[in-house]
Write a structure and sequence with these properties.
single chain, alpha/beta, Rossmann fold, Helicase, Ruva Protein, domain 3, 4 domains, five-stranded parallel β-sheet, 16 strands, 44% helix, globular
Length: 471
């Protein structure tokens, strides 16, 4: 299996002969890698230690670096960190000894593209090289908006800037990603962004809602089946894994998978092979797994609802999605973008939010996050024909209006305290919740009814305000 001249010409960032750096102190390994890569049409340079590798890196451009984890003057992890810091556009893969996958995981978390276990499989090596040379250029804050075909996460708050930076870093790796976040926080959007910026961007992205598939259909939907395998199998069906082969498979709400399916999923991920129902032969697959759930997967492991071995396979690197209430300063920008999209889809003149409506949106907690914000604005547009949307036109849930407006009976806060706006609002909210709890003898169900909110929303607010410790 080799790359032909046409494939080489189409490889981004690579000239007619992509240049690869090998860093290893074992002559046999160097010779094996050099012969294999030369047959693929690659130019190869080698170094036997980290110091020599740094000299070569400073002297010319490379399209890929392959390094052993154990070198005479340090660890391969040190070279990974050096390249990530000085040559962020250069993918680096580490070669690890059998049984030392924890080193590989550490390298992936540090920014390595992928890893190769020893003894080195030539097929895995070729696949890795082709993927690495297919990585798109690194995107910057200034270049992303110009690429209208790609999805973006809006916002200038620190949590959002950090999230975008992490996504860019994860997109240049082959590690399995676990995305943790509340419902509506944009987990699938983050998964699609990782895929679109990755070496697999030209291949399929398959999104699967694990909680929406009946248990008796899971095996056939995930692994596929051959025509005639069972009564209703009137044609061949590849299933999610084979359809996503070469690309990315996004397993949303992965915590909802039954334990029997978790066992089968684990085997496919470990063996990188899948067998369709009704077939005797297994097929090799190359799929990057991105999983997500609004539940705490570690808690599911502790309670026996999720297999620990599968958890560690999926959660090589964890990406945490911030809740909308943690980046309130971004709400006006996100809301305006959603409004513009909804107006375009409805073929109506562009609408704008008035100052009082923006303030009202910023003070709401959004248990449903961005999805709830979009629902609020869609409902507002359906009931409002004005181009300027004010507080009266905004269709917030009635429970939110009670919290935002019914503060007349609360003790006044003296102006000389000089509280910032958010602290002032937090104190009003805290006093309102404490008053409702006192009135209802700390029965949270009754207190939530008094406040006009759900018990879940009350729990969110109490946790954010630090009231759980007092109650």
């Amino acid at each position: 299996m080799s790359i032909n001249s046409e494939e080489i010409a189409n490889l981004p960032k690579a000239a007619a002969s992509p240049h690869i750096l090998i860093v290893d102190d074992e002559p046999d390994i160097i010779e094996l890698l050099e012969l294999t890569l030369a047959r693929m049409g690659m130019e190869v340079s080698s170094a036997k230690c980290i110091s020599n590798a740094k000299i070569l890196l400073q002297s010319r451009q490379f399209q890929l670096c392959l390094t052993d984890m154990r070198l005479p003057d340090g660890e391969g992890l040190d070279l990974v960190k050096y390249i990530v810091h000085h040559r962020a556009d250069l993918p680096i893969a580490v070669i690890t000894a059998y049984g030392t996958t924890e080193n590989a995981v550490a390298a992936l978390k540090a920014g390595a593209f992928d890893y190769l276990p020893k003894p080195v499989s030539l097929k895995q090596l070729r696949d890795l090289v082709k993927l690495a040379l297919n990585l798109p250029p690194i995107q910057t804050e200034s270049t992303v908006p110009t690429q209208s075909n790609q999805r973006v996460l809006l916002g200038e708050s620190q949590p959002m800037r950090q999230l975008r930076a992490t996504i860019d870093k994860l997109s240049r790796s082959q590690a399995s990603i676990y995305i943790n976040g509340e419902s509506g926080s944009g987990k699938e959007l983050a998964a699609r962004m990782i895929h679109e910026r990755s070496a697999r961007h030209k291949q399929a992205f398959i999104a699967v809602n694990c909680g929406a598939i009946p248990e008796n259909l899971m095996e056939s939907e995930f692994f596929g089946y051959k025509k005639g395998a069972f009564t209703s199998a009137d044609k061949d069906h590849d299933g999610f894994f084979l359809t996503a082969n070469g690309g990315s498979l996004f397993l949303d709400e992965v915590a909802d998978l039954p334990l029997a399916m978790q066992v089968k999923l684990l085997r496919v991920i470990q063996e990188k092979q899948v067998r369709r129902i009704g077939e005797s032969q297994e097929k090799n697959i190359d799929v990057r797994i991105i999983s997500a759930t609004h539940k705490k997967l570690s808690h599911c492991v502790e309670t026996g609802q999720f297999r620990q071995d599968l958890y560690y396979r999926l959660n090589v690197i964890e990406l945490n999605m911030p809740a909308l209430r943690e980046m309130r300063e971004d709400i006006p920008l996100i809301a305006e973008a959603i409004l513009a999209k909804l107006c375009r889809e409805a073929a109506r003149p562009a609408c704008r939010l008035k100052k009082d409506a923006r303030a009202m949106l910023m003070n709401y907690d959004y248990p449903g996050n961005v999805r709830e914000l979009e629902n609020i604005l869609e409902r507002t547009l359906a009931l409002c024909s004005e181009e300027q949307i004010g507080e009266d036109e905004l269709q917030l849930p009635d429970k939110a209006k009670i919290i935002l407006h019914d503060t007349g009976s609360l003790p006044p806060i003296s102006a000389d305290q000089g509280l910032p706006l958010q602290d002032f609002l937090d104190k009003l909210e805290k006093d309102s919740i404490i008053k409702a709890l006192n009135q209802n003898r700390y029965n949270r169900t009754k207190a939530s009814k008094t406040l006009g909110i759900t018990v879940r929303s009350l729990r969110y607010r109490m946790e954010r305000l630090g009231l759980n410790e007092r109650t």
